[in-house]
Amino acid sequence: MVKRRSIEVVCRCGQPLARYKKRGKGRLVKMFFERIALDHAGVFLTDPPLPLNREIFCPGCGKRVATVQVISGKYAAKVNQGGIQPM
Fold it and tell me: Taking the model in full, what pTM does it have?
């Protein structure tokens, strides 16, 4: 059984971005959109959905935090490792 834990994803500038249901251990590399529990900043779960290869920027500081990709057949945000700090 895989453990899930909720983590807060925050930009390096301190802007809260999302609450994510992470599986397993290790650092946050990708965020599957179906596991984003709460989108604080409104940058991940938009209507209409974000297109592929679209860059996602922090609304607070304007830095790139992720890029939209298809990983294992699911839409996900490939996280910029220097852009966020999971808490």
Answer: 0.86
